[in-house]
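Progress note, sequence design subtask.
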């Protein structure tokens, strides 16, 4: 616009040329103004969208932080529970082991007692057997003497 030069005519500039130029400038200005408004609205929409994305980003960041914190807490709680369960299992295992050892000791003692009783019974049986054998031998001797004595009376 600044560089445009109007042809000089008599009595000043050519009126038609000035009118056409002003009309072209007005149309260009109107087009630029409309484009400027359109771009301003687009910038406004983009800013609103950007603000919405930033808000969502903050919400997501907060949610991610909360989820990470909860995940850490859940892991820590699970670890504590696992440790507690493991400790309880170790205590129970130790108790069961001690009970098993005591029971094994009782069984060993009972076996030893039964072996001693068996030996005592065997000794008693041997003694009874010996006494019975001695008794049988006495009975047989007495029978033999009786037979000899009765043989001698029968022959006399």
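Output:
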């Amino acid at each position: 616009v600044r560089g445009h030069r109007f042809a000089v005519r008599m009595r000043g500039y050519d009126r038609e040329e000035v009118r056409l130029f002003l009309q072209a400038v007005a149309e260009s200005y109107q087009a630029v103004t409309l484009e400027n408004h359109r771009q301003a609205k687009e910038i406004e929409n983009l800013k609103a969208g950007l603000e919405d994305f930033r808000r969502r980003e903050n919400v997501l960041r907060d949610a991610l932080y909360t989820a990470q914190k909860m995940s850490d807490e859940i892991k820590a709680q699970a670890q504590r529970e696992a440790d507690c369960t493991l400790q309880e299992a170790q205590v129970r295992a130790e108790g069961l082991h001690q009970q098993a050892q005591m029971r094994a000791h009782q069984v060993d003692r009972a076996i030893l007692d039964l072996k001693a009783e068996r030996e005592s019974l065997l000794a008693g049986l041997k003694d009874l057997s010996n006494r019975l054998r001695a008794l049988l031998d006495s009975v047989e001797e007495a029978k033999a003497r009786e037979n000899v004595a009765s043989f001698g009376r029968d022959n006399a």
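The CA atoms of residues 8 and 64 lie 74 Å apart. Work on this subtask will continue into the next period as scheduled.
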